[in-house]
Description:
Layout: H1 3-10, H2 12-40, H3 42-57, H4 64-83, H5 86-118, H6 123-173
Helix pairs in contact: 1-2, 1-6, 2-5, 2-6, 3-4, 3-6, 4-6, 5-6
Amino acid sequence: MRLIDYVHQGGLIMYILVALNIIGMTIILWKVFSLYSSKKNLESLASSISKRFSTKMKDKSVGEELKHTLAKEEVEYEISQLESGLNTVKIIASIAPLLGLLGTVIGILGAFDVISKSGLSDPSMFAGGISMALITTVGGLIVAIPHFIGHNYLIRAIDKLQARLEDSVLSKVF
């Protein structure tokens, strides 16, 4: 059986899962590329943050501790740009198994409906509902697992980048 046949057999829930998978994987790939680009250009990124910070601090007399905090806030702003979209990936990872479970319940309901109308004389009649139930469960897990992995990987990589960026910016500012 081809993959598209499984999607058709899973019904509307599978189409939703496929759409969510496309959206989530696009975001993950975009974030991986953005993160790679930021790591590659770390020094130029740190220089631009330092210049922006220095411009804001011009003509202001504040203590060293406050300056340190404000410099970190500039880095956090830059990191927040990298983190945008990751909540969507997290949401997809969280709801995909639930959608699979919803498909399971719908499939089992359909199977019981067939059984209540025609009895158990022909098992192939209610097999479609059972099949839908199993396919959507598998589909939900197939979508969720890579999204959980991608989200956790990206969060960890962004945290590491933030630490390196803070060190670089603070060394340029102070």
